[in-house]
Each structure stands twice: as structure tokens, then as C-alpha cells.
Amino acid sequence: MKIETLARPLMKGFIALILSFILNLACRCVSFAGQEVRPAPSATPVQANETPAKPRTLSFEERADIYMARKSYEDAVDYYYRALKQDHMANAVVWNKLGIAYQQLQNYHASRKAYNQAVRHQKDYTEPLNNIGTTYFVEKKYGKSVKYYLKAIKLNPDSGSYHMNLATSYLHMKKYKEAVEEYRTALTLDPDIFLRRSAFGTTIEAPRGADPEYYFYLGKVFASLGRPEEAVRSLRRALEDGFKDRKRILEDPDFMKISQNPAYVELMNNPPVGIKD
């Protein structure tokens, strides 16, 4: 038998074995390529997502405060009443807030009732006393407003807003000297009092309908406190509104303190049209 005859079947078997191996390897590669690639397991087990905590429910008072900030005063009144009904101890602060909400609605009778309730529950609570004064002020009952401002000041003499409110009532009663002293006290306690609108618990009355005499006296207050820019600004307003007594300005001891201030000198040398020599 020839060697070629023996080698031929062996060669066919070897080739078949090689083809089988290659085909099997190709199938394995295709199978792996189609599998989802997953990360190696972490050493620390992954915790299941916990249900997020529910947001805290707002109290009735907090909801009312939000309505106040949005100027939805009727809704604020509703929720302050709910807060008071829920708290049978009747929180004085909530009564005061209720009074402010009613005051914003211009229901001054209801606001005073709420403020008085606040005082009944807390005798030394001065903010509602001041706030009662503001309700009388807007009704032009200046004498009654003074009465309540003085009560608040007696208990808390260090509140600039109380002194400012008292001064404003004196102003409308034409009691200029008393008004000046109270404005001076207010500015001493709180130098920026005229820039403020109101605190949440305390209402502040800004001067309204002031006449030239008021601005003259207000200028004196600023001059006496060493605040020449504001003094000149107030004096200019007095002159623009018709204040005519130039001699009174030049001889005033408070304005003499700022007589060398360039803005004051310029104002006196070139006064607004409203003044006459």
C-alpha cells in the first residue's frame, strides 16, 4: 500500500477536526457578543430605593403667614382663625397677626378687637398696643392714637417705630415741637427708621400730607443729629412747598451747626422758587 493512500484519510480527518474547532469557537464568540454586559458585583449590596419622606404639613398659622406675604388678606384671616381654634390657649402673637390682616382689609373695628385679644392674653405685649394706635391714626383720631402709642412706649421705650408713630400723630395735631422730639428719639434709636415700611408684627405710619412746617422741623432734627445731607434735603422740601421764613432758617441754632456744609450754602444761595426774601 502506498504512503499517499494511507495519508489521505488521515489528512481529511484532521481537516474536519480543525473546521469543527473553528466553527465552535465562532459560535461562542457570537453568543458572548450578544449577551448583556453586567458590572462586577459590588462588595457592598445595593440598597433598594427608599420611599422619599413626605413634606411636612404646614400649620394653619404658617399658611396664614404665606397668604399675608401674598397679600391675600381674606385667606390669611381665615387661616389665623383656624389656628386660634386649633390652639385653645389662644396665642397672643396669632391674635396680633389677625389684627394686622384685618387692618390691611381696612376693617379697623375687627382689627382692634383682635389686638385687644392679644393684649388680654399677654399684658406686656406692646406691638398690639402700637397697632391699635395706627388704626385710630388712619381714622384721623389722632388723640386716641397718641394714647395707645404712649402706652406702648411706657412698656417698651426703646422701639424707634413707636416713637415715630407718636411723632407722626403729633405732626397731624400741629404739635410740631413734640413731633420733633419724638422723631429725634426715633432716629437716635433707629437711624434708618424712615427707610423702613413695617415689621411683620408692628405697623408704622409714615408722615402723610405734611406741610412745609413739618419739613422745616424735620430738617432741624437731622441737623441736630449731625446728618447734614438729610437736613438739607428736608429743608429743600420745606422751601419747595412754600416755607417762606428765610430769617428763621438762618438764625436757627440747629441749622447753624451745618451752616458751612456746601449743600446747605448752595441751598441758601440758590433757594427754590417757592421761597421769598
Overview of this protein structure:
This protein is mainly α and 277 residues long. It folds into three domains: 58-123, Tetratricopeptide repeat domain (Serine Threonine Protein Phosphatase 5, Tetratricopeptide repeat); 141-202, Alpha Horseshoe (Serine Threonine Protein Phosphatase 5, Tetratricopeptide repeat); 210-277, no CATH class. Helix content is 65%, strand content 0%. It has 14 helices and no strands. Helix 10 packs antiparallel against helix 11 (228-240). The longest helix has 31 residues, at 3-33. It is elongated and about 75 Å long. Mean pLDDT is 81; it is low at 21-43.
* Helix-strand sequence: HHHHHHHHHHHHHH
Q: Radius of gyration over alpha carbons?
A: 41 Å
Strand count, sense and barrel status of the largest sheet are: none
- Say how many strands there are: 0
Q: How many structural domains can be distinguished in the coordinates?
A: 3
Mean pLDDT: 81
Low-confidence stretches: 21-43
Number of helices: 14
User: What global shape is seen?
Assistant: elongated
Distance between the termini: 151 Å
Strand residue percentage: under 5%
Specify the structural class. Answer: mainly alpha
Give the helix level as a range of percent: 55-70%
Name the features.
mainly alpha; Serine Threonine Protein Phosphatase 5, Tetratricopeptide repeat
Write the layout of secondary structure elements.
Layout: H1 3-33, H2 60-69, H3 73-86, H4 92-104, H5 108-121, H6 126-138, H7 142-155, H8 160-172, H9 176-189, H10 212-224, H11 228-240, H12 246-251, H13 253-256, H14 262-269
Helix pairs in contact: 2-3, 3-4, 4-5, 4-6, 5-6, 6-7, 7-8, 8-9, 9-10, 10-11
